Amino acid sequence: MRDLARGMFVFGYDNYMAHAFPQDELNPIYCRGRGPDLGDPSNLNINDVLGNYSLTLVDALDTLAIMGNSSEFQKAVKLVINTVSFDKDSTVQVFEATIRVLGSLLSAHRIITDSKQPFGDMTIKDYDNELLHLAHDLAVRLLPAFENTKTGIPYPRVNLKTGVPPDSNNETCTAGAGSLLVEFGILSRLLGDSTFEWVARRAVKALWNLRSNDTGLLGNVVNIQTGHWVGKQSGLGAGLDSFYEYLLKSYILFGEKEDLEMFNAAYQSIQNYLRRGREACNEGEGDPPLYVNVNMFSGQLMNTWIDSLQAFFPGLQVLIGDVEDAICLHAFYYAIWKRYGALPERYNWQLQAPDVLFYPLRPELVESTYLLYQATKNPFYLHVGMDILQSLEKYTKVKCGYATLHHVIDKSKEDRMESFFLSETCKYLYLLFDEENPVHKSGTRYMFTTEGHIISVDKHLRESPWKEFFSEDEEQEQQGKFVHRPKSQELKVINSSSNCNRVPDERRYSLPLKSIYMRQIDQMVGLV
Question: Which residues are catalytic (predicted)?
Fold first, then answer.
C-alpha cells in the first residue's frame, strides 16, 4: 500500500512537471497546465488559489523529502529558486497563498537546513537561505491586507504587486483571517522580525474578542471594518475549521499559553453547543455523536448538513487526547466514504443524501485516519487507508493524473487536480503505510500545518524576544472581554504519551468502535 501511495504521488507529480509546469495546476484529463483566469477575475474558485507562481511544484516540495526522493527534491528546490517570483500582477487569497506557498517554502527551508537530515541528504549545494528569502518576499506582499482595516482583521485578497484591490470585499471568513499565525509566526521567529507574527496574532485576537458572550462561539463571515458578523453560522467545517486548528497548533509550536487558553475555551463551547448525540462514543444509548451547524448567538440548529472539511476534526481531537470522540466522528465520515467511494462536499445527515456533490480530492479524512492510526495502532485504520487508496485509483485516475469528481454518485469528473492532492492527500496516505518513516522514527517531534507541510517542533521556534510586547498589546485590546483561563492542570503537554495511550492495548486488534455502533452509523448514512 505504501508503494501504491508513492506511485499515486509520482504519477500526479511527473505529469504536472511534464504537462503543466511552470503553470500553477495540472488539468489531468486534457494534459495541460492552468494559471489564473485573467479573463474572468470574478472566477474566485480558480483565482483565489492560483497566483502564477508554479503552485503545485511549490506545494509538493516537502512531500518529495518525506518520501526520501533527495534527487528530485533538490532539483525541485533549484527550480523554485531559479524560476519562481512573486513580483506578479496576481490577486490571490491571503489564506491560500499563506498555507500553500509560504508554508511550503518554510517547511522546505527547514528540511534543507536541518543538521540531522533525517530524510536523507536533502541539502542544497551553496544554499543561501533562498527559500526563506522567497517566503519573506511573499509575506511582505501579503502585509497590505492587514492595513486600513479598523478591526485588525485582514482583507481576504491582495494583489502581489499593487496591494489591496480598490474594489476589495470587506467581508472575510473566520478561518481565512484567523489561520495565518503558524506560518507568519514561523517566519517571524526565523527572521527575528516580529511584524508578521504581530499582525497574525492581532487578527486572531480581534476575531476572538468578537465571539458571542452567551455561547463563546464565533460566526463564519465577518465585516473587517465594523466587526459585524455577516455569517452567523458556527460549525467545524468551511469558514471556521482551521481557526480552531491553529489555536492548538500555534501553542504546540510556539508554547504561548494564551493560544491554548483560547483553544480550550473554544473546544468547551464546541462541546456545549455543536455536539449532538449520546455522551459517550463507545457506550450507552442514543444517536451517534455528531457536530452540527448552529447559530453562534443562540446555539440553535441552522441546517442539517455537514461539509467534508469537518473530517479534519477527529485528527485535531487526537492531538488533544480526545481519542474516543475522534473514533466516533471519523467512523461517520468513513461510512459516507464507503457509500460513495468519496466524500461529497456537503452531506445532509437528515436526508441521508449529498447536498453538494463534488469531491476535489480533499485530504481531511485521510489526515484523520493517519493520526488515529498513530494514536491507536489499530489495523482498522490501515484498512480505511487501503479503501481510500483503491477508491481514488478506481474513480479519479485519468490519463495524466487524478481528477476532481464532479458528482460522487455518477463519478463524472472535472479537469482539475488541486495542489493539495500532492501536498496532503498523497503524503498522509504514504505516511499511514510507512511505519519506518523518519517522521515516526527519527526522534524529532513534527507537526503538520493545515496544508500538510511538516515543521519540526523545537526550542528555536519557542524563543520569542517580543513576548512582552504581545502581552502588553493583549491587555490593551481585551477591553474587559472575559478570557477563559484554564486551571494549571489544563495546560497539559499536547500529544504526550499518556494522552495517546487512552485506547487500551486489548482494543487495538478489534474494531475501534463496537460493532453495534458501527452498524448504527452505517444506518445513519443509508449504507444498510
Answer: 96, 241, 345, 364
Strand 346-348 with 305-307, pairing? antiparallel
Q: Using alpha carbons, list the distances in angstroms from residue 387 to 219, 411, 430.
A: 35, 17, 14
3-state secondary structure of 417: strand
For 1-168, CATH gives: 1.50.10.10
Q: What are the pLDDT digits (tens) for 381-425?
A: 999 999 999 999 999 999 999 999 999 999 999 999 999 999 999
H helices of 377-420, in order, are 380-395, 420
Give residue 448's identity as a one-letter amino acid code. F
Cβ neighbours of 99 (radius 10 Å): 26
Q: What is the mean pLDDT of residues 346-367?
A: 97
DSSP element (H, E) containing 409: none
pLDDT in tens, 251-297: 999 999 999 999 999 999 999 999 999 999 999 999 999 999 999 99
The three grid cell numbers given for residue 128, joined into one nine-digit string: 543561501
Residue among 15, 26, 29, 19 at smallest CA distance from 413:
29
37 falls in which pLDDT band (50, 70, 90)? confident
Catalytic positions, please? 96, 241, 345, 364
Specify the residue for cell string 504546540. 252
Per residue, what are the HEC states of 5-67?
Answer: HHHHHHHHHHHHHHHCCCCCEEECCCCEEECCCCCCCCCHHHHCCCCCCCHHHHHCHHHHHHC
DSSP category for residue 308: G
**Model confidence band, residue 509 (pLDDT cutoffs 50, 70, 90):** confident
253: Cβ–Cβ under 8 A, 6 or more apart, which residues?
182, 185, 186, 447, 455, 457, 461, 462
CA–CA dist 454, 112 (Å, integer): 12
Distance (Å, rounded) from C-alpha 205 to C-alpha 477?
A: 8
Q: What is the DSSP code (8-state) at residue 424?
A: I
Return the pLDDT at 48: 78
| Bind-site residues for Ca(2+) | 450
Annotated binding site: 450
DSSP state of 334: H
Q: Distances from the Cα of 232 to the Cαs of 295, 343, 474, in angstroms? A: 6, 25, 25
Bridging pattern class, strands 25-27 and 221-223: unpaired
Predicted TM-score of the model (pTM) = 0.93
Domain ranges of the chain: 1-168, 170-303
C-alpha cell at 221: 463571515
26: β partners: 33, 417
For the chain, what percent of residues have pLDDT higher than 90? Answer: 87
- φ, ψ of residue 397 in degrees (nearest 5): -75, 130
| Confidence check: pLDDT of 88 > 60 | yes
196: Cα within 13 Å, side-chain hemisphere: 26
* Cβ pair 425, 337 in contact under 8 A: no
Q: Where are the alpha helices (DSSP H) in 192-256?
A: 195-208, 241-254
Q: What is the mean pLDDT of the chain?
A: 92
